[in-house]
Amino acid sequence: MQVLVYGAGQLAQMMYLDGAALGINVMAVDVNNNTVVHPVSKLPLECTLEQAIELADALTVEFEHVPEPLLEQAQASGKLYPGIDAILVGADRVREKALLSGLAIPNCPYQVVDDLAQLDSCVDKLGERLIIKASRDGYDGYGQWRLKTASELPALKSQLAELDLKKVPLVVEQMLSFDREVSLIGARSKSGQVVVYPLAENLHHEGQLHVSVAPAIASSAALNEQARDIFTKLVNGMDYVGVLAVELFQCGDELLVNELAPRVHNSGHWSQAGSPTSQFENHLRAVLDLPLGLACNTGGEAAVSAMINIIGCDNHNMALLGVPGVHFNWYGKTVRRKRKMGHINVTASNYAELGSKLLSLSEYLSLAHFPCLSEEASRLASES
Amino acid sequence: MQVLVYGAGQLAQMMYLDGAALGINVMAVDVNNNTVVHPVSKLPLECTLEQAIELADALTVEFEHVPEPLLEQAQASGKLYPGIDAILVGADRVREKALLSGLAIPNCPYQVVDDLAQLDSCVDKLGERLIIKASRDGYDGYGQWRLKTASELPALKSQLAELDLKKVPLVVEQMLSFDREVSLIGARSKSGQVVVYPLAENLHHEGQLHVSVAPAIASSAALNEQARDIFTKLVNGMDYVGVLAVELFQCGDELLVNELAPRVHNSGHWSQAGSPTSQFENHLRAVLDLPLGLACNTGGEAAVSAMINIIGCDNHNMALLGVPGVHFNWYGKTVRRKRKMGHINVTASNYAELGSKLLSLSEYLSLAHFPCLSEEASRLASES
Question: Quick check: A65 and A261 in contact, CB under 8 A?
Fold first, then answer.
């Protein structure tokens, strides 16, 4: 079996590694030059894009910002999973909001703005604490602005003055005071089988995910059920095939959808070490219409998991492998500021042990690059 | 980090896949033509053997029958782990027996024979029930003969008459009546750190491993301790670095060493799904002198594991992935009679559940190619 992935970054690489074990050959498309490359070495394969499309049993994406002509060519093959509509929902906040509203799925109150003058009425309708997001090309905190009081409106407007809002409108959302950010990763196969992983809790810093913990502490069966309902409505509503990531805000006992990612997702990386089936394997199974695998936490020594992103640095001390239950993952990229270079999965039999392992890890990892780590370690370590 | 593996089969492939996640690049040597190839695609890499040796941080082997000139070249680099002596112990039963006797490790009573006339004294010393093994190139049951009564001696002698016993002596062993075959897989790092996996029980059919179960049913702490002692004596005695597999016969409460394999081993494949660290990752960690990872059964949904070899067939129904806890592994080789094509790992929370999963699996797998499966499934299913 062959799968072609648009995008040749770490997500394609991790699909390749899980696929290879299963006898599934994953190839990647470098969307900057439309060449077909090996997902690990990134070296060109002797195969044109057209040949690879022909050869593949399924096509998929590792990110939602694939150029539309490429997506249309992929869709025309009849083998693109998820389909172009679902991918564009992930790439365009206006479409995303329309989908959520159409399916009556709770999300943050919002307005679409294609003229800066409309910002005043946003303040009237949503209040003066707002998050303003470009509807497209927003990624990891780029293209986002905040309004804290109405008095900042004139300054904000001049900051946004150069944007072409007719081409790329803004989605203006009420800034909610939520308790925490969680995410649900799940998969739906071509045959309609659905599995979901337990809710993960996500810690962000400067707009980037730094740490995920799964299952999220104190996530009740009811909360997971609520998340599962949202997921099922979404995937059935879109006739979605593959792994879908749903980022959520938890406000008390209620979950609001913040964002969708039509792909495997950073907050699901813990599943590589912490679940019987990783999100990468389940994505491949889903798009190839194979039965999906167990998506629970494994239990035992892997009852709880943490995922720690390695961002913007490559000078880690590999002695960190001496911390029991550490699973190191490296993407082989050149270091750049704010670039995701790899991640560390840690498994433990309970939260307190997980916290103490993170504390041990933090001795090898600098506070400058891992700003959330020791605080999260202490929080977990204090769990009984 | 770079590791060069002599041999380009499934063991090198699985080392590559686990290494790639860690940022370790594994290259393979096809020892038939001394080319350096990609361990998955088997395509030649743009690199001579000499360049690859120079580039590598460590050299290792996936099988013990690497031509000696190649091993000597590897050893001369100062980076071969395990070293040539340990590899040759695995390739030569005379050396193996000498090592075991030298370290006073229990093994089957034996005689070395380099002249057929000596067979008569073997019968005198060891009894008339004997296993006769070529000291070299024996692999998976090839090069082995059995004597059941002394009356078969003349026929056996004429069968062996064409062998050059001065070049390749025979090792003649007493045929023991043992209770079962188990194996211990463990690793020792360059720094001398040692980890061992739980004892696995192995079911053979016509000289080939078909099913492993880990931990072996009813393997007491004392039995595991005995195995660990044997392992520690061996690796410290040889100053061994890497994963070593020790095949053992269990007779009552006593373990006798049957055979050593100086490499990752088929009976340790269960660790991919059933342990926090696979034998492949621990082998790479060991030869690169990184801290070793946890080698226990994970627990929870992966408290017990089975590994089922797929031998001599490639027409499996992928619907078998619908059995929960199934992990499919495929080597991408052309099918041949008795050839290991892939394996299936199955994890469960207890033996009874494992048995019932194997029973479900056996519905997809033919009795002809999986002769031990349903019987083993029933045996496990009846465990309380």
Answer: no
